[in-house]
Structure formats: C-alpha cells, structure tokens
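Try this one yourself first.
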C-alpha cells in the first residue's frame, strides 16, 4: 500500500490537464450493456473505479479493450448476475442494474453496503424499477429485479435528501428499452446525467429534458453501438482550483467546462480569489488568505457535496469564521478530525462544520477515509508547515488520476512511497 508525503510550502504555477469525469464514465460504461453492438468511449479516466467497472462488464460477458483513454466494449452475449466478490469494491456498481433490466429484463446484483460518507440506501432506485413493472426481491444479500415487461410510467424519484444521481441514471437506462413513455420527475440534473443521456441518445434512445428535474423517455425496441467522449471531471477540476487558491501564484486548468463549475468559482471569487474564465479553461490567482464563506451543499447547480471537504481545507487557514453545511450527506465530515490533527479549529454543529481560520497548520500523519476527504488532506498539506503523511491513499486513486504527478508538475513537493508492512 502507498502513502503520500506532502511537503508543505511550495508555490504552484502552470497548467494542469483535467481528466475525464469518473462519475460520468461509470454509468456510461455500464450503459454499453444495453446493446450487442460495439461502443467506443473516449476520455475514460485511468482510475481504479473505472477498472472495477470494466472488470464487472468483463465478468458479465462483455469484451473490453482499453488503449490509453479509449475503451472499446462489445457486450454481445451477457449474463445478468454480478456476485458480491465482483461488485463489493465499488458502490457505483449498482448502476449495472438499470441496463441489465432494460436489455435482459432481469438482474441479480449484490447489494452495496453503507459507506463512510453515510448509509447510502438504494430504495429510490428500487422504487423506480418497481414503477416500471419489475418485481424486486432482496435475497441473501442480493437484489433481484425481474420484469417480463417493462412499461413506461410516471415516477417521482425525489427522496428526503433531494434527487438521486445514480438512481436517475439507473431508471433512465432501464426505461430507454421499456414500452411507451416514462416520465422521471424529481430527476437529478447533474452534468453527468446529461452526459449519460447524450450517450444513450447516440445509441438511438429517445430522451428529452436531461439536465432538468423532469426527464421524458420514449421507449425504443433496441439500441445500437455508439462512440462518445466523456465530459471533463468538474470535481477534479474544482480540487485543482482549490489547490491554486491555497498555494497558486497562477494555476490554469485545461479541458474544463467552466459552466459546470459555476457554484465553485462563484464561492472562490466571493472568498477573494481572482478567476479568469476562458472557453474551456479557468485560471486562478492565489492571493493569500481566503475570506470567510457560508457554503451549503446542494444538488446541481448548487454547491457540490463532492467539493465540501476541499473547501474546508482551504478555509481552515482562511480569515474569520466559515460555515460549511451538508444537506446531501449530513455525515460527510471524516476530514474534520484529521484536519484538526493538523491544527485546524473546527467545531461540528449538526450537519455544519464551523471553521475558525488559523494562522498556521502543521503537517502530521493523517488517515485518508473517503475519496474527497483524502483530497482535502493533500490540499491542507500544501499550506501546512512540514510534512503531511497521508495513509490509505487508495481512496485518492479511486477518483484522481496521478494527483501527485499533476501537483508536482505545478511545483508541489509530493512523494508517493510504499508503506512499511504493518503501517
Ligand atoms: N439516497 C436515498 N435513496 C436512494 C439513493 C440516494 O435516500 O435510493 C440519498 C443518499 O443517501 C444521499 C442523497 O440521496 O443522501 C443523494 O445521493 P445520490 O443517490 O445522488 O448519490 P449517488 O448517486 O450514489 C453520486 C456520486 C457521488 C456524489 C453524489 C451526490 C457517482 C458514482 N457518485 O452518488 O460521488 O457525492 O452523487 O452528488 O456518481 C464522489 O465522487 O466522491 C462521490 C461520492
């Protein structure tokens, strides 16, 4: 297992190329199961989560080839059962249920457990499958979904924490091959859902309204192969923007869709940073301390929960008192105890972190717990004195392509070393 050592205090300057979006690529790869024909997906990030998804597709019978960022998949003959061993490594593997149900009218997939950012149920996915006419049964840790006929209907997918991204993806993928019209109300409007819808449309699906709270799907008899380029990763981009705010003289992100990052750039500008927006690039000028912010995470186009931990790392050394409130995953604050070990002054009040900016952070051994919390620790290390030693970095590698190399190319001083056994 690797650990990352961040030697704080370097200034960052230069350009960083943003990779393809993990959260777009995963459901898009799953959607290739909807056709027997070949699909070619470009800009697939080289991340462990994408490798897991390709292993799952392979297990289901698909032929998978990968050359650099391009993946070619042909799922001519598939089975419909994905056991625990193969899906347990990644919660997002639930998004194979929709395409299996759409194409084969059945799926047996091991149920995902909870995860450190919260309980993460899939009740809304299952409610959607049932509304389409499927029988859903939980048996021996598996969810079995069976639908001799999938029939279009109106489904409200909104839950108590708002819309569900993968739930919307799943119902979308099941309904494209259902009979008649499906209306998904309370749909997630994230750019990743729009990207999936665009791929499905390229495969021959009839979908309107992706990117709004109401998606309308007109079922078709079958889908064909298609070629698609995954959108840039707005969360990876946001993370490098925060790195630029923390330690950047001038950092330019290339291959971004600035509109997808609007709520993040708006917050950084409010905090006192200068950002210059180009067609597909953003430049941030770090200018010392961040001003205080009140951030509330919300579904897109609101401030993303996937950027809350990174903003927290920035504001720990900011001016005054900032408040970060989670409305999507109220327990998603695993970074807080670790940041406190580095000298941060943070108090939890229910689903809010109250951050009093401090003058100085000091590097410490810390534990990565989930993907974004881990990224926050790398960012905090950039403006800490001494060395921050981050353990369990496989969490970071799930969602960031070579974060150490990309930051080092900007001037950071980060090492990746093997943990001694027992560490
Ligand atoms: N929820 C339910 N029931 C469900 C589904 C969701 O109550 O059936 C709740 C969740 O517990 C949560 C809220 O609804 O409180 C929103 O969850 P959502 O379903 O939207 O999350 P997800 O689709 O499982 C995706 C991303 C997450 C991101 C969330 C929110 C992927 C692979 N994952 O998860 O990304 O935080 O949407 O935007 O797309 C990450 O990349 O670090 C990450 C965790």
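Now uncover the answer:
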């Amino acid at each position: 297992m690797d650990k990352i050592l961040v030697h704080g205090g370097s200034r960052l300057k230069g350009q960083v190329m943003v990779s393809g979006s993990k959260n777009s690529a995963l459901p898009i790869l799953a959607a290739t199961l909807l056709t027997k024909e070949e699909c070619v997906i470009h800009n697939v990030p080289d991340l462990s989560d994408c490798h897991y998804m390709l292993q799952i597709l392979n297990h289901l019978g698909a032929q998978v080839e990968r050359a650099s960022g391009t993946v070619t998949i042909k799922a001519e003959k598939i089975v419909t059962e994905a056991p625990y061993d193969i899906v347990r490594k990644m919660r997002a593997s639930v998004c194979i249920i929709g395409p299996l149900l759409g194409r084969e009218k059945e799926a047996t997939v091991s149920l995902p457990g909870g995860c450190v950012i919260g309980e993460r149920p899939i009740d809304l996915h299952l409610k959607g499958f049932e509304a389409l006419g499927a029988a859903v049964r939980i048996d021996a840790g598996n969810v079995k979904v069976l639908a001799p006929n999938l029939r279009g209907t109106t489904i409200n997918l909104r839950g108590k924490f708002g819309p569900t991204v993968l739930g919307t993806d799943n119902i979308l993928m099941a309904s494209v091959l259902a009979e008649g019209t499906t209306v998904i109300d309370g749909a997630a409007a994230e750019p990743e859902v729009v990207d999936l819808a665009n791929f499905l449309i390229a495969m021959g699906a009839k979908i309107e309204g992706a990117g709004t709270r109401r998606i309308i799907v007109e079922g078709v008899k079958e889908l064909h192969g298609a070629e698609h380029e995954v959108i840039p990763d707005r969360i990876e981009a946001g993370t490098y923007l925060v790195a630029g705010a923390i330690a950047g003289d001038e950092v330019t992100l290339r291959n971004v869709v600035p509109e997808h990052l609007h709520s993040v750039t708006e917050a950084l500008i409010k905090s006192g940073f200068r950002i210059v927006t180009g067609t597909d690039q953003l430049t941030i000028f770090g200018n010392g301390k961040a001003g205080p912010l009140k951030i509330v995470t919300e579904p897109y186009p609101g401030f993303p929960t996937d950027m809350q931990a990174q903003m927290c790392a920035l504001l720990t050394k900011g001016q005054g008192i900032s408040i970060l409130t989670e409305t999507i995953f109220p327990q998603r604050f695993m970074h807080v105890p670790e940041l406190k070990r580095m000298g941060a002054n943070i108090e939890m009040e229910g689903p809010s972190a109250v951050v009093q900016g401090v003058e100085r952070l000091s590097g410490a051994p810390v534990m990565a717990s989930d993907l974004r919390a881990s990224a926050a620790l790398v960012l905090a290390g950039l403006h800490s004195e001494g060395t921050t030693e981050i353990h369990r970095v496989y969490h970071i590698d799930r969602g960031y392509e070579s974060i150490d190399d990309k930051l080092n190319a900007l001037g950071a001083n980060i090492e990746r070393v093997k943990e001694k056994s027992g560490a």
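Discussion: Residues 23, 26, 92, 118, 120-125, 159, 161, 164-167, 188, 192, 305-306, 328-329, 371-372, 399 surround EPU (CB under 6 Å). The chain has a mean pLDDT of 95.
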